[in-house]
Amino acid sequence: MAMAIPMLLGYVVDGPIADGDVLGVVGVALLILLAGTADSGVNFARRWMMSRITSIIEANIRFDLFDKLQALQMGFHKRWESGQLLSRIMSDLGLLRRFTSFGLLMLVMNTAQIIGVLTIMLVMYWQLGLTVLVLIIPVVIVTRILVGHSTRLSRKVQDATGDVASLSEESLHGVRVIRSFGRVRFAFDKFDEGAVRLRDLGVRRMNLSSVLWTLLEAFPNVLLVLVAGVASYAAAAGVLTLGQVVAFVTLLLSIAWPVGSLGFLLSFAGEAESAATRVSEVFDSEVTIVSGNKTIGDPQGRLELVDVEFQFDDADLPTLRGINLTIEPGETVALVGGTGSGKSTLVALIPRLLDVTGGQILLDGVDIRDLDLRQLRSLIGTAFEDPILFSMSARENLTLGRPDATDDEIAEAVRVARAEFVYDLPWGLDTRLGEQGLSLSGGQRQRLALARAILVGPKLLVLDDTLSALDIHTEAEVEEALKSTLVGVTGIVVAHRASTVLLADRVAMLVEGRIAHVGTHSELLASVPEYRELLSADYTIEPKLGEV
Q1: Which domains does the chain have, with CATH numbers?
Q2: Which tens digit of pLDDT belongs to each residue from 231-270?
Q3: How many Cβ atoms sit within 10 Å of the Cβ of residue 548?
Q4: Considering the entire predicted model, what is its pTM?
Q5: Using CA atoms, how far apart are residues 90 and 415, in angstroms rounded to an integer?
Q6: 125: number of Cβ within 10 Å
Q7: Contact (CB, 8 A) for 417 and 475
Q8: Which of 123, 251, 266, 416 has the fewest CB atoms in 10 Å of its CB?
């Protein structure tokens, strides 16, 4: 449409205007009006349709990216800062949507229009068209170089944005620690350093883009002067008609905006390319923990660890070696050991938060790597030393693993975990907890996490030092209530206190990634000096009355 209007103007100058045909001029004017209206209508329909399509595509990619992040193993999340992932799932995808809905289409259409105009010029008067083409070549080369630099700077800007997001998140989550140590200024300076780096990179990118935009905005004006001069000379020599001169000049004016906008569009394309690369880095990451296809018809909860080994990707030595342990249905085993002995790593292997690098773990005789991952995790209730609560109601946090739990079942889980404080919150169970549950104390968060694990009604209950933040009195109450819960449930308890060890039927002691001793609390207390030393700081290390 845009290229038709200059040709119509050339025709009307050489035809109806030269002949004094008023009706002919009006007819061509109506055609030009119709062409312009049609062009505007097509542009509106295109933008409306593309905005809807690209918004749907963006949402679907964001769903897929979130799903991918949920599926990726813990090692991936250990390596990547959360701010970098957040910037990819939000700002990078938003940038890609804006480019595909507007920038990409404009880039294609403007490029096509420029090529079309050059082709018409070559056909109408090849000498002038060739001159324009020769002048464009060095501009294209310079543009290509500048766009390459802009793309690399865009990647640095986007990475710096992720770094600033991570710094912001860390500072906000750790605001109590920062204030308690009087390090507000330190946190500000650290954030300021990241923000200044982001600003400087952004300014460098904008300066480069400004050079590119200025070059491409000035170039059409230079061409216009050249074309007008050459075309006028050709008209004076009788090679071109006045209408053809008008068509030439109007054609060149019609590509002034497409050429001038190329600077912005190419910079935009560089940013989008960088964003697409960053998003692809997540999608291209390999998911190593994949679901099996086997299921257990009647789960009993018998757990066997056979020559289990585990080594982190970035470690020189394995964290766990030659772990052999069998836990019968309904039996509770306590894992004890010094700091760094591998207790938390071992319990993370059971719900496949990590995967063994050697040996196997069997649940009711089936390798857990062959089990349907959804079923495996539905059979396991887990509570960690550092519990994570979400920014939703206490009820929603409690029923995370079992959304269909009744009020009576919730009340029983709350009773066992001694988490009755939830009923004293402003709106009871429907009170919205702050992000990560920071409105609660550490002990309250641990008790809610324990109640959440109990509410699942698991065949295996894994407690990773879940009671560490409780006072002695509350801990004793929880442990007493847990005894009835552990009946008929296979339990694995990471323990640092003798009182917690007493919940277990047997104790497995880890030393440097190996199970060095297995037995009852009284047996290890009597025969293993290291065990006595490990628990000697606790207020009670004697076996319960009647246990000997």
Answers
A1: 4-282 (1.20.1560.10), 296-377+497-548 (3.40.50.300)
A2: 787 778 777 787 777 877 888 778 877 887 887 888 888 8
A3: 11
A4: 0.75
A5: 41
A6: 21
A7: no
A8: 123
